[in-house]
Amino acid sequence: xxxxxxxxxxxxxxxxxxxxxxxxxxxxxxxxxxxxxxxxxxxxxxxxxxxxxxxxxxxxxxxxxxxxxxxxxxxxxxxxxxxxxxxxxxxxxxxxxxxxxxxxxxxxxxxxxxxxxxxxxxxxxxxxxxxxxxxxxxxxxxxxxxxxxxxxxxxxxxxxxxxxxxxxxxxxxxxxxxxxxxxxxxxxxxxxxxxxxxxxxxxxxxxxxxxxxxxxxxxxxxxxxxxxxxxxxxxxxxxxxxxxxxxxxxxxxxxxxxxxxxxxxx
Length: 266
Prior knowledge:
Elements: E1 5-16, E2 19-30, E3 34-38, H1 45-52, E4 60-65, E5 68-69, H2 74-80, E6 81-84, H3 96-106, H4 112-122, H5 138-149, E7 156-160, H6 168-183, E8 187-192, H7 195-201, E9 204-209, E10 212-217, H8 219-223, H9 240-247, H10 259-264
Parallel strand pairs: 3-8, 3-9, 6-7, 7-8
Antiparallel strand pairs: 1-2, 1-4, 4-5, 9-10
Helix pairs in contact: 3-4, 3-5, 5-6
């Protein structure tokens, strides 16, 4: 992890006709970290990722990736990032190894076969590598998708809700793959609407609501925003869910224990 931002967003705005999606988004992602952009459907997560990946132009504000401006230096941005969308972009007719070899050839990498074999081993897919991807589970396909995104050694990986539609076991497989990226020094910006996903994976969490980041920090820093837990039977710290729902105004944070427990403890 470094203190130098790999992604820097300031005052980003974007509207679709008369609907304002981003309303001055500010976000900084230190190099070598996993940062989760946490928000409900419609909060603006995917729009932000599309702007960062140069697929969409912002109406206002600035955004840089690895020091490159996404508006004026899009080719340099694309050369240094990889984007994984909400659904695995793999060819089901090909085998897993063939998918990786194809992408390596498209990116003009030397020795595509060796790259494919190394990535299959890294993501624990070697045994399935010779099978058509149509026979793979959802978690395996998503891991292959992430493996394909690493060809060419991008320094920044954008993951837009990577566990959408996956069962719990497949989600855990993807979580392990994401942790592996950070362990090797890759910067990861992860968008999600799952509180536990942000809590489990992220070094820092930014809560996005109605086009703006309400607050960002480590899990401990976000928990400290709410009153400390009241000790009755068991002391209970605020969960990330408590922080999120309190900030977006859905409900008040839960307290440790209950009135019944309080009565029983007298």
